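Box 4.2: Ligand-aware structure prediction
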Amino acid sequence: MSVYPGAYPATRMRRFRQRSWARELRAETRLHPCDLVLPVFVKDGIETPEPIETLPGVTRQSIDQVVETAREAHGLGIQAVAVFPVTDPKLKTEDGQEALKPDNLVCRTIQALKSQVPDIGVIADVALDPYTSHGHDGLIRDGDVANDETVETLAEQAVVLANTGADIVAPSDMMDGRVGAIRSALEAAGHPDTIILSYAAKYASALYGPFRDAVGSSTALSGASKRSYQMDPRNRDEALAEVSLDLGEGADAVMVKPALAYLDVIAAIRERFHVPVFAYQVSGEYTMVKAAGAAGVVDADDVMVEHLLAIKRAGAGTILTYAALDVAKALKGSS
Ligand code: PBG
């Protein structure tokens, strides 16, 4: 069925494509800096930002530099940063207990951000992979990540993060029952307003490589995959079940990750659940675009925006992207 009852020439779809102003009036999807969240990597003991080879244009930064980056981001209209710690390998252990220390790197970063750039939202991952010597998101028992024991630790980690000022805690571990445990723990600890952004549909993807390089969890990961807890890329119904469970347990918003290869999942969630849907344009997605640009195959900036628009058009309201600063700058320049 056509939306326009009249056939050509009564209907000419090109009328609205003739001029820039008309295309702007007709535009169904727009990208705005408010739609973007900037992930940042923080590291102790560095003087200048450290380039990440597999993540072109992205650096590991000291706490002070992260604060400056967040200030710049906020000036460009970006409303939140997601903080990822690059943990000193000496502090990593089998059980990742560094995650629970109130003065660990991510906590010190959150405090600095909240005191120096109070108007930007701070998102902190809840998962043990930055802290475990094996690189997995939870505690290993009998050769696999043990769900229930991990959940207890994650609930404690979420409280530590909320105590230091994290506005949004984002469980990215994919354990069963963790959202409910985190919600109860936050209530009990006097944090009724902390937002839980659940990585509800996080797939066991081959696109996380550059991120694992950035935080130094890949060398630790010893070839083992995360398929016993992250989702199977073949499944969509399972993602809807994850979302429904997480919302029932007290999640305020849900995330799909990666983004571009899972637009159908974003659209299906958006259609069924009327809650905020976030999408994570992950490291591998970002680097593929940059690499194709560097190879002279495409214009990386144009393709990046095209991908972000596709993610938004599919139904994501907010997108985590390493390109947030560049895109926000370009949007500012064009308006
Ligand atoms: C860890 C975590 C990962 C990412 C965000 N949080 C990696 C993983 O699950 O191994 C990946 C993000 C990216 O690739 O940009 N819980």
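In the box above, the bound molecule is PBG. The pocket of PBG is lined by residues 125, 127, 129, 137, 172, 208, 211-212, 226, 282-283 (CB under 6 Å).
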